[in-house]
Structures are given as structure tokens and as C-alpha cells.
Amino acid sequence: MKKKKGIASKIYIALVFIFMYMPIAVLIFYSFNEGKTTVWKGFSMKWYIELFKDDNIMNALGNTLIIAVLASVFATILGTAGAVGISNFKGKKRLIIQNVSNIPIISPDIVMGVSLMLLFTTLGVIFNFEMGFVTVLISHICFCVPFVVLNVMPRIKKIDRSVYDAALDLGCNQWQAFYKVVIHEIMPGIFSGLLMSFTYSLDDFIITYFTRGAKFQNLSIEIYSMTHRRISPKINALSALLFLAILIIMIIINIRNRREERSKLQRA
């Protein structure tokens, strides 16, 4: 009976993974197609070569990566500081502030996109500036911060306060104790928040669409503009490379986490 349940669970998991990753597998498969359509015309690296020759896509990709890196770094700093600040409150105050910080996660992207657009339009009239790189960056930081708070808060709750007090008793000042004890303990949460912020910023379309202005172009906007004509197979190649990069990052993170767990067990 147990064997049957084990086989059934394995089949179920396999079907779930096939359902999730089959579209990506098809996309990667057709990125090596010689032809432009879904009719297979032979294996070729043509679209990968054409991808790196396309200045519009490369510029859009560069803008996307710059925004994602900057937004994730600033959001991680602000979100970590916010999580530490929230943890200093107690009772209902902490619950209220934490729930307020989660509102941007729950609210639809279009609400945040339109509200930010109205804010930047009003400020643009007052201070005479146009929407572009800076407004997109600020927008991405705004919606990434709550995800960092969400990842860091559980780690803060697990910290043993006595370790922090012991660091102070042993000669550390408050900053040294915070850096060596608190930051060290919540680093996995900070790293998770950084990665989540990076992926959400990389993937965002709606908020960027409303806050980019007329001149700024990122990858999602570039792909959207292609839908009015026809999506080039070069996008298949680009998507395959992005998926491969994310997969490599996730493998490295998993290997790193396993090594840390083994070292902790050996110390214990």
C-alpha cells in the first residue's frame, strides 16, 4: 500500500513539473529553429547571433538589468531597515505596521502603476522634469521593499536576544553587535529578499509601463511593442538565456545553503 502511494505521489509531482515547465521547454526548443514559425526547419544558432546584433533589444536588456540591480539593492537596504524597525514595536502597533507594509503586495499592480504615474506627473509639473529612468527606478524600489520586509521579518523573530546582549557585554558597541549578530543571523532572509526583488523588477511590466515616460525602454516594454507586429524568434533565444542564468543562480544558492547547513551540523 505504501509503495503504491509512493509511486502515485511521484507520478503526481512529475505531472506538475511537466505542466509548469513544458512551455519553457517548447520555447527553448524553438529558439534553435532555423525558421521564423513553429514549423521546424532545422537546428541553428541563428537567432542567438541575431539577438546580440539587435541594438534595440540589447539596450532594453541593459536598462532592465540596471534597473533590477539598483532597485533590488536599494530595496534590500530599505526593507531590512524597515523590518528591524518594525521588530522593535510590540503588540498591536507591530501588527498594524506590518499589515500596512504588506498592502503593496496585495494591491493590484495597475493601482500602484496609475497612482505612481499621477504622483510623478504632478511632481513633474511642479519641479519641471519628465518621467524616465529615475521614475522607473523609484517605482521598482517601492514595490520591492515589502517583499524584502516579508523575507527578513521571520528571521528577525528567530534571533535569540540574549546573543545580542552577550555581544554588548563582551565589549561590542551597538553597531558592532548589530552587524556581527543581527545581520549575520538574518543574512539568509536578506539574500532571499534581494533575489526576490531582482526577479520581480526584472519581470515587471505594468508599473514600468505607467511610469517610464516616452523615452525609457526596458525589455518588457520592448517585447510588448513587438506584439503589434510579430514577436521575433530572437525573443525565444533571449528568454532561453535568461532562464538558464536564473537556473544557474538557483543551483549555486542551493549548493551554498547545503554547505552552510553541513557546517552548522558539524559545529554542533
Enumerate the spans where pLDDT stays under 50 for 5 or more consecutive residues: none
SSE pattern: HHHHHHHHHHH
User: Which outline best applies?
Assistant: globular
Q: Beta-strand percentage? A: under 5%
Main β sheet profile: none
End-to-end Cα distance, whole Å, is: 38 Å
The strand count comes to 0
Please tell me how large the radius of gyration is: 23 Å
**Helix and strand composition category:** mainly alpha
Q: What's the total helix number?
A: 11
Binned, the helix content reads over 70%
User: What number is the mean pLDDT?
Assistant: 85
Outline the structure in words.
With 268 residues, the chain is mainly alpha-helical. Helices cover 81% and strands 0% of the residues. Helix 2 packs across helix 11 (234-267), helix 4 packs across helix 6 (133-158) and helix 6 (133-158) crosses helix 8. It is globular. The chain starts with a helix and ends with a helix. The mean pLDDT is 85.
